[in-house]
Design brief:
The complex is a heterodimer of chains A (374) and B (297). Chain A has 374 residues and is α/β, with parallel strands linked by helices. Chain A contains twelve helices and 15 strands. In chain A, helix 2 crosses helix 10. The radius of gyration of chain A is 22 Å and the shape is globular. Classes of the chains: A alpha/beta (374), B mainly alpha (297).
Chain lengths: 374, 297
């Protein structure tokens, strides 16, 4: 009996001593496939944030387990299952495409594991979810910014191009249309495309007939680049406006001169970076990659920073750094987090409330135009 | 739809269709001799586009680069036959089919690992990307060149098949490999020639595709390969002329579905395949195909 008590005492003592352990964050990104640039750039920013801070205040080491889902919904959901069952991660970070995040969210929700998407902007990603948070603004806001910017520039007749395969694009189109018509604009036509398609000549010829003031493109950069090129080849001079899915160097690389003047809303532009956090990140980014800092990377770094902050808060509250419930409560309760992409506050639905920037392509570069606050 | 737009759509359809046709010819020829649906064929097209891209990036003139792409793809074609398919000549056809899918995955992933999977911008020379106006119609020069070259290639392939000794051997192989071997013909050499022709055409198709849609990535061959396969089946798999007809039909269907019903544009692939099913319901061997058990070209 005495022996037993001493064993219990020893165990209690051992438990009391804070042994440094590993806390795992599962990262799901499209590192290959059609939208690989999203995943690659996200990973680039995440790596910088990870290098800057990967040890928690109690000595626990943060470990990243990165899985590639090839930009596929089914693979994304499988990746989350694998991360939960095999790697036993405490938090999930990802995805970029809303469709993929929507496939992942129910899996994380069921396992009561906090998930934060850094870049999925479709409102349905976090809808009715207790464990899903995001580090970016949502499409109704982004669509409204697009519409307002177009209307402010006197462009009152729009054709909307929707990628029927992407929830992101469908949601964004809806948001844009609502804000645009409410602001006095007219939608003359909606044209559907499919991500992965390369030939848009038929759609472009249709758009040409309607002669709009602006083409609101709500899809992603691979299609945007080819479509704007085919439109310019066919003699259409109408300006394009897109959202955060198009602002990638590949847009300019593939479309070349045709990309000139392409406007889009985005989360971040290093030219507008004024906070010390953003400046430090941009500097580290330039040093490591020797190219301009992109928005996906900045968002991923912010999502990572929010997770680390949540873990630190748990430690302060006397809980384990891998306590899923505690991390989730702290993530959902994020207030005034000073991130790279701005000050982030999470609302009651798990969505980040923050500002957006508008950029445009000029001489092959992404030039900052303006910042729009919520 | 006014007449300008209609004509514009017509050339667009012809251009898209001829790219499917070029790739479909390779599918159909390999099927003809080996009864193998070579699922790696779309990836050979990707290889052709990539090799050309690398050669131009290295500073070579475009024409030389294309030649490198064609020769390189032909070599990859020969290698896949020698390494993957030849040991399985006597094996059940299903083993061969699974091997083909394996080769397809291998090529896609090899190129992803080696060169990354972000789309690369394909640079075509000025004379291929020039655009001229015909009234209200804007014609990129490529939409004229591509169908012309395709028809020219079709003529050459048909000439090889029907006017040369090798062509005769290929047609004979399609009937019965064993008998052809007994006649003293080196069947493996003939099969190699089929792979050379098929892969070279796929490479040309790949270069055209990259010129028209200047964004190339290691997975670009999947959907194009699938469409070309559908074109080959539509035209009657095993028939070279049928492959070309099938390719054009598929190209026109895709373009005109979007042109006439822009709201349904997102479902153009579904329409293309629906059309395929419809044709097969009434003519199970495809438009120009004959009984599957008889060899033909």
């Amino acid at each position: 009996m005495k022996k037993f008590t001493s064993m219990v005492a020893a165990a209690a003592l051992l438990g009391g001593i804070a042994y440094a352990k590993d806390v795992k964050i599962g990262v799901v990104l499209p590192l290959t496939g059609n939208i690989a640039a999203f995943g690659q750039t996200s990973k680039g920013g995440l790596d910088i944030a990870y290098e800057q801070k990967n040890t928690l205040s109690n000595g626990d080491k943060v470990k990243l387990v990165v899985v590639d889902d090839r930009g596929d919904k089914v693979e994304a959901a499988t990746a989350v299952k694998r991360l939960l069952d095999k790697d036993k991660v405490s938090v999930i970070l990802g995805e970029v495409a809303s469709s993929n995040s929507m496939a992942m969210a129910p899996v994380a929700e069921k396992a009561k594991t906090p998930m934060i998407t850094h870049a999925s902007t479709n409102p349905r990603v976090t809808k009715d979810k207790k464990y899903v948070t995001r580090a970016c603004f949502i499409d109704p806001f982004q669509g409204a910014v697009m519409a307002k910017y177009a209307l402010d520039n006197g462009l009152k007749k729009a054709v909307v191009v929707t990628d029927a395969k992407q929830d992101y694009s469908v949601g964004l189109s809806k948001a844009f249309k609502k804000a645009y018509t409410a602001g006095g604009g007219e939608i003359v036509k909606t044209v559907l495309i499919n991500s992965g398609d390369k030939d848009f000549n038929a759609q472009v010829a249709t758009i040409k007939q309607t002669n709009p003031d602006i083409i609101a493109f709500t899809g992603y950069y691979p299609e945007a680049a080819l479509m704007v090129k085919q439109a310019r080849d066919m003699g259409i001079k109408t300006p394009f406006i897109g959202a955060d899915g198009v602002g990638f160097p590949e847009l300019v690389k593939i479309a070349g001169k045709a990309a000139e003047g392409f406007m889009y809303t985005d989360h971040f532009n290093e030219a507008a970076a004024s906070s010390p956090e953003a400046k430090a990140y941009v500097e580290a980014f330039h040093k490591k990659y020797n190219k301009p800092a992109d928005s996906m990377g900045a968002l991923a770094a912010d999502a990572y920073g929010m997770i680390v902050q949540a873990m630190e808060n748990c430690i302060k509250a006397g809980k384990a750094s891998d306590d899923k419930e505690c991390i989730n409560t702290n993530l959902r309760g994020t207030k005034g987090y000073k991130g790279i992409t701005g000050v982030i506050t999470i609302d009651e639905n798990g969505n980040a409330v923050k500002s957006a920037v508008v950029n445009a392509v000029k001489d092959g570069k992404f030039v900052y135009k303006t910042t729009v606050n919520p | 739809m006014n007449i300008d737009i209609f004509l514009q759509q017509l050339v667009n359809g012809a251009s898209l269709g001829s790219m499917y046709a070029l790739i479909a010819i390779g599918y159909t020829m390999v099927y003809g001799v080996l009864r193998l649906i070579n699922f790696a064929h779309g990836d050979i097209m990707m290889v052709g586009a990539f090799l050309t891209f690398f050669a131009t990036s290295a500073g070579m003139p475009f024409e030389v680069a294309v030649l490198i792409g064609i020769v390189g793809s032909a070599i990859i074609g020969i290698l896949t036959d020698k390494i993957a398919y030849k040991p399985l000549r006597e094996a059940p056809k299903i083993s061969l089919l699974i091997t083909a899918i394996g080769i397809s995955f291998f090529l896609e992933n090899l190129f992803t690992v080696l060169f990354g999977s972000t789309p690369k911008a394909f640079k075509a020379p000025e004379y291929l990307t020039k655009i001229f106006h015909l009234g209200n119609i804007y014609l990129p020069i490529s939409v004229i060149i591509i169908p012309t070259v395709t028809l020219l290639i079709l003529a050459i392939v048909l000439w090889i098949l029907y006017k040369t000794k090798y062509g005769m051997a290929i047609r004979a192989l399609a009937f019965d490999i064993q008998t052809v071997k007994l006649m003293g013909i080196d069947a493996d050499k003939i099969i190699m020639i089929v792979f050379i022709i098929g892969s070279a055409l796929a490479a040309i198709g790949g270069v055209f595709y990259a010129v028209s849609y200047p964004s190339i990535d290691p997975l670009m061959g999947i959907i194009v390969g699938l469409k070309a396969f559908a074109a080959a089946v539509l035209g009657g798999i095993g028939s070279v002329g049928g492959a070309v007809v099938g390719g054009f039909i598929l190209g026109f269907t895709e373009i005109f579905v979007v042109a006439m019903f822009p709201e349904l544009g997102g479902y153009k692939d579904a329409f293309a395949f629906f059309f395929l099913i419809l044709v097969l319901l009434f003519k199970p061997t495809g438009i120009m195909g004959q009984d599957l058990e008889r060899g033909r070209f």
